[in-house]
From TrEMBL:
It is a multi-pass membrane protein. Keywords: Cell membrane, Membrane, Transmembrane, Transmembrane helix, Transport. The keyword Secreted does not apply. It comes from Muricoprocola aceti. InterPro entries: MFS, MFS_dom, MFS_Efflux_Transporters, MFS_trans_sf. Its main location: membrane. This is MFS transporter. PROSITE patterns: MFS. The chain crosses the membrane at residues 56-77, 84-102, 108-132, 144-167, 173-191, 217-238, 258-275, 282-300, 306-329, 336-359, 371-392. SUPFAM superfamilies: MFS general substrate transporter (SSF103473). It is found in: Cell membrane. Pfam families: MFS_1.
Length: 404
């Protein structure tokens, strides 16, 4: 009984000296999403610039993340993950300081966004890879959950902070990047030096690609493409379902969607315990829960039921978000994890990009009911993925140690 209780006490196995810097620097992985509140003010500052150019200030970091994260995976064989995190924090700090020095040049703002995007792209790959380098087994899954929870909480804090800072001048929102050097010092002191990844290109590459492109990495990357495509259907269809269905207005859409962030934080914090129960079927459960949520939203007669569907969707999405990288960590050796994660994240990003095309291609099977067909198409994809994932885990991944 004592051993059983100990095994369920998954958070006692976390090395907090390592976990705390991870939970801090991961905020800068997507900190720039908090700057959406100042976009209108930037447009006022540059009235002659096109709307597309102004939007680039906010979208460039995300656009750069795909190629940069892949490059980061390759560079991990030449530099340690800790060095790359430190570099990304320095680059983001410099990018954040540019508007404070010169906020009258749109070109300088674009340069700022490019530098921030460079830092974010590196961190997207390295943050999860560092978890894999310092934690193993179920503890790695627990650490992934804590990382995601910390990111969600601190991004919410950043969003509020940038809003208040911008009251005295929109460029003052960039003051939040003064936290980057503080996090850099904590990371430099607390995080172990770590190791370089296996060489993929150039002299000494050897069998590096074989260690990266394992059956698991290839499978979960392809799976992530379709999971992301079906997952993103919530955001592209929920507003139409509520407004066109006569169930509410834009404020109602916000209310139905806002629960996702709260649920993400809660599920991320308890993911270690969920993993102990569902073990290697965590992804199958996550996708299945999302399919149920979509079917509830389709059948919902009122806003309350759609909100319940949104909350259930948030549970599945949060589990999927945390589990995806964790599965990659189990699918390849530690010194190949950076590029493995980068490949998986790239397929995820591509899945989001092509989501409308994938969903609409399947939605036609369910008639021409607009948004309802979209949700039905996404649910159909998810049900197929659940079946495939259960078969894979049962037949081809018998030796999995996930959740043990």
């Amino acid at each position: 009984m004592t051993n059983e209780k100990s095994s369920m006490n998954v958070y006692k196995q976390i090395n907090w000296k390592i976990m705390i810097p991870i939970m801090l620097f991961v905020t800068f992985q997507s900190a720039f999403t908090a700057f959406s509140s100042v976009l209108a003010s930037i447009a006022e500052q540059f009235p002659h610039a096109s709307a597309t150019t102004i939007q680039m200030v906010l979208t460039l970091p995300s656009t750069m993340s795909i190629p940069v994260s892949l490059c980061a995976g390759l560079l991990a064989s030449y530099f340690t993950k800790k060095q790359m995190i430190e570099f990304s924090l320095v680059v983001e700090f410099i990018g954040g300081m540019i508007p404070l020095v010169n906020h009258t040049s749109l070109g300088m703002l674009i340069l700022s966004s490019c530098l921030i995007g460079l830092g974010q792209g590196i961190m997207i790959t390295m943050a999860s890879a560092i978890v894999g380098e310092n934690f193993t087994g179920t503890t790695s899954g627990v650490a992934m959950g804590l990382k995601q929870a910390a990111s969600s909480v601190l991004i919410a804090v950043f969003t509020i902070a940038t809003g208040y800072l911008a009251l005295s001048g929109w460029w003052h929102a960039y003051y939040v990047y003064f936290l980057a050097p503080v996090v850099l010092v904590i990371t430099a002191i607390s995080l172990p030096k770590g190791q370089k990844d296996v060489r993929i290109v150039g002299k000494g590459a050897g069998s590096g690609w074989k260690k990266v492109l394992t059956r698991g990495v290839v499978y979960y990357s392809l799976l992530s493409f379709f999971m992301a495509a079906a997952n993103f259907a919530f955001y592209t269809n929920i507003a139409f379902r509520i407004v066109n269905g006569g169930l509410g207005d834009s404020a109602s859409v916000g209310m139905a969607s806002a629960w996702n962030q709260i649920v993400t934080i809660i599920i991320s914090l308890i993911f270690g315990y969920i993993l102990k129960v569902v073990k290697k079927y965590a992804l199958a459960v996550a996708v299945g829960v999302q399919a149920i949520a979509y079917l509830i939203i389709v059948a919902a007669p009122n806003l309350s039921m759609i909100t319940i569907g949104g909350i259930i969707y948030g549970v599945g999405a949060a589990m999927q978000m945390v589990a995806a990288c964790y599965y990659i960590l189990e699918s390849c050796e530690q010194d190949a994890a950076s590029l493995g994660i980068a490949i998986c994240m790239t397929f995820t990003s591509l899945g989001i990009t092509f989501s409308p095309y994938v969903i609409n291609a399947v939605a036609g099977i369910f008639g021409n009911n607009g948004v309802t067909s979209g949700f039905m198409g996404a649910a159909a994809i998810q049900i197929v993925l659940v079946v495939i994932e259960i078969i894979y885990e049962t037949v081809l991944n018998k030796d999995s140690q996930i959740g043990n």
